[in-house]
Design goal:
There is one protein chain. This protein is α+β, with helices and mostly antiparallel strands. It folds into two domains: 35-108, no CATH class; 117-322, Alpha-Beta Complex (Fumarylacetoacetate hydrolase, domain 2), CATH 3.90.850.10. The protein is built from eight helices and 18 strands. The strands form three sheets. Strands 1, 2, 3, 4, 5, 6, 7, 8, 10, 11, 13 and 16 form a twelve-stranded mixed beta sheet that branches. It has a four-stranded antiparallel beta sheet with strand order 15-14-17-18, with no helix packed on it. Strand 2 and strand 3 form a beta hairpin. The chain is globular.
């Protein structure tokens, strides 16, 4: 479907991060705010390009490789260049050259084939309360396979193996540089930017099947719509004060604010980097607020023909039809 492009000690130390911080941090990589996208031209589906949106996502897209042929064609490669790549993207945007009209392109997920998709469970207090679950004292980490990622306006495919597919609007962020054992006070300097995700979930496989391990229920193909843009950290005023909403067929089913997150971006980067090395392009999904279908009375699940829109202030919307 094509839609318009709009759109104590451990506990105390971790839980307190949602109300921090008084000390300054370096935010982002290049210090410049942009909206980065991946796309292909219509008729050139095998040719992925990286672009920079003009304005606030409503104007054209600057083709980065057309501006500078030495630049890479994918977001992971661009982020791997560090400040050099982002500075080139800023020059391209400032030039006003190599602009493509929205009608000539299709937006893809801002990151494809990341090394890791790191997900956080029960990271909103009210989401814990709606399922009568205790408030976590440390982040609950699971994952999706990267193959679950799909574009901001692509279809969500209902698998025949599941009858209980559900929605989850989530703030996502993308790692911009390699790091291990990252200090919390340095964490934002490892984050390239933020985007919108829908952590689509097959509740029967998540909660009843597969030994109640979450992975299979979370990782069917198309179960991670992402986009529409990677909004660089310096373009987001405060990632922990953003309105978050999910609508199904135009009706609001989730509405919250990222200030309700238990563990914030900085705490998540520091925590996960204790265990694994983070690399450019790694995607984090930071958890969903209350309002998911499975905990409604009676439960509600997605059906063919539904349209799910996940919105986050300053970032945009992903809009996906269920097929």
């Amino acid at each position: 479907m094509r839609l318009p492009l709009r759109s104590f000690s451990i506990f105390r130390s971790l839980f307190s991060h949602r109300k921090q911080t008084s000390h300054p941090q370096r935010r982002g990589l290049s210090g410049v705010g942009m909206r980065l996208v991946q796309f292909h031209r219509h008729g050139e589906e095998g040719s992925i390009r990286v672009g920079v949106e003009q304005g606030d996502g409503g104007l054209g897209v600057v083709d980065l490789k057309a501006f500078d042929p030495s630049m890479p064609s994918t977001m992971r490669e661009l982020l791997g260049l560090g400040d050099e790549g982002l500075q080139c993207a800023q020059r391209a945007l400032s030039s006003g050259q190599c602009v493509l009209q929205r009608s000539d392109i299709r937006l893809l997920s801002p990151v494809l084939a990341p090394e890791k998709v790191v997900c956080v469970g029960m990271n909103y207090r009210d989401h814990c309360l709606e399922q009568d679950a205790p408030i976590p004292k440390e982040p609950i980490i699971f994952s999706k396979f990267p193959s679950a990622i799909t574009g901001p306006y692509d279809d969500i495919i209902l698998p025949p193996e599941s009858q209980e597919v559900d929605w989850e609007v989530e703030l996502a962020f993308v790692i911009g540089r390699r790091g291990k054992h990252i200090k919390e006070e340095d964490a934002l300097s490892y984050v390239a930017g933020f985007t919108v995700a829908n952590d689509v979930s097959a509740r029967d496989w998540q909660m009843k099947r597969n030994g109640k391990q979450w992975l299979l229920g979370k990782t069917f193909d198309s179960f991670c719509p992402l986009g529409p843009a990677l909004v660089t950290t310096d373009a987001v005023k405060d990632p922990h004060s953003l309105g978050v909403r999910c609508l199904v067929n135009g009706d609001t089913v989730q509405s919250s604010n990222t200030d309700q997150m238990i563990f914030r971006t900085e705490a998540l980067v520091a925590w996960v980097s204790k265990f694994v090395t983070l690399t450019p392009g790694d995607v984090f999904l930071t958890g969903t607020p209350p309002g998911v279908g499975v905990f409604r009375k009676p439960p509600i699940f997605l059906k063919k023909g539904d349209v799910v829109e996940c919105q986050i202030d300053q970032l945009g919307s992903v809009i996906n039809k269920v097929v």
